[in-house]
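Fill in residues.
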């Protein structure tokens, strides 16, 4: 069964790469100018899969749901900008008219604006808010701090509210009836809590399991809830945002450092039982390992949650790509595309649960490694000249 699946996924990936890669043709300058108007005319009304996929996975100051006849249906979100010289500016993102106009000396970046002023696309990207001069040109001298409530921030707050409602409701039910068997939603949550307690917290942290159990449960449920909300049409993939996973990894990193003891730092700065000539090589590696652990947590969660959504969007986009070639082909491929999409939805349900467990599990492991080292008097230093 593995071979057909492998070949099937290989074929699907090949088709996706074929239709999404960029081709380069050797043309003379005159040919390019002659064909420019024709290419612009042909591109009008054509489905742009790249923009659709990137719009879904990127953060935004608008919560976009869908478009009707080219008109976006979205909710404008609050923009909060701080400038050291003048203070805060608070207004709704609708003032930008989807990037067409500036407001109060600010403008939201669009592809056309970036190309017009030939800006660096690594630093200036669509959706970023920048200060502008009176003529509309970028103001590179004024520093700003954008702390707006973007769609990722709002969905993360929504996930936090759901998490709080779940645990507060379950806790109140236990408090009212401490000796009564769990029932309803309480009965669904309890096995998961017990599993994290026994298989993650106690398995790695031993006697200190109860101390870190609130952290591990919060990380697990928060990631899992966000991954489930991301599968609802019109929502956003918060767990596929590098800032979100970086913030979670930062919290884990802080807990790891607060859990260390002197034996841990002795092991890092002067590893016992190691020849002296090896220690100058090993110590930098050990110090680097302090930072690679949270970095691995951040990248692992980000890559896994982002990849699944991009695959789903790519498969759906192929309906419109084939439909743009021939309507009958698009309708015919829609059956295959919908089938793969449903399959990927079930896979993403499993991936979200697994990634939440892995993040909590690795956090518990890294914390345990921070305090499990005991005294090193039993080690004899091997001196090699």
């Amino acid at each position: 069964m593995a071979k057909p699946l492998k070949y099937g996924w290989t074929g699907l990936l090949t088709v996706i790469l074929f239709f999404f890669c960029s081709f380069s043709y050797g043309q003379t300058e005159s040919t390019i100018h002659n064909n420019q108007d024709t290419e612009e005319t042909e591109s009008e009304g054509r489905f742009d899969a790249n923009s659709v996929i990137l719009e879904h996975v990127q953060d935004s100051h608008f919560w976009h749901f869908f478009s009707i006849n080219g008109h976006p249906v979205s909710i404008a979100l609050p923009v909060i900008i701080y400038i050291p010289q003048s203070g805060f500016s608070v207004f709704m993102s609708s003032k930008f008219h989807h990037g067409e106009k500036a407001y109060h000396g600010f403008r939201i970046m669009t592809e056309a604006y970036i190309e017009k002023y030939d800006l660096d696309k690594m630093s200036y990207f669509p959706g970023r808010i920048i200060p502008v001069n009176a003529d509309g040109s970028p103001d590179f001298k004024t520093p700003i701090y954008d702390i707006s409530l973007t769609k990722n921030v709002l969905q993360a707050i929504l996930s936090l509210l759901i998490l709080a409602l779940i645990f507060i409701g379950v806790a109140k039910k236990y408090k009212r009836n401490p000796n009564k068997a769990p029932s309803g939603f309480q009965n669904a949550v309890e096995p998961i809590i017990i599993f994290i307690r026994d298989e993650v917290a106690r398995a790695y942290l031993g006697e200190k399991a109860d101390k870190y159990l609130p952290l591990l449960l919060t990380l697990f449920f928060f990631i899992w809830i966000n991954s489930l909300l991301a599968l609802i049409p019109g929502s956003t993939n918060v767990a596929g945002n590098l800032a979100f996973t970086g913030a979670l990894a930062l919290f884990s990193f802080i807990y790891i450092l607060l859990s260390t003891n002197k034996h841990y730092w002795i092991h890092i700065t002067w590893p016992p039982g190691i020849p002296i000539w090896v220690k100058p090589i090993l110590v930098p590696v050990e110090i680097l390992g302090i930072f690679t652990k949270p970095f691995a947590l951040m990248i692992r969660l980000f890559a896994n949650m982002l990849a699944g959504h991009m695959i789903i969007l790519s498969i759906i986009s192929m309906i419109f790509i084939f439909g743009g070639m021939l309507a009958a082909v698009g309708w015919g491929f829609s059956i295959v595309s919908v089938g793969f999409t449903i399959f990927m939805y079930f896979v993403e349900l499993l991936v979200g649960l697994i990634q939440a467990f892995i993040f909590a599990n690795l956090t518990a492991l890294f914390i345990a490694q921070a305090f499990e080292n005991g005294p090193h008097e039993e080690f004899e230093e091997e001196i090699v000249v």
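The two ends are 58 Å apart (CA to CA).
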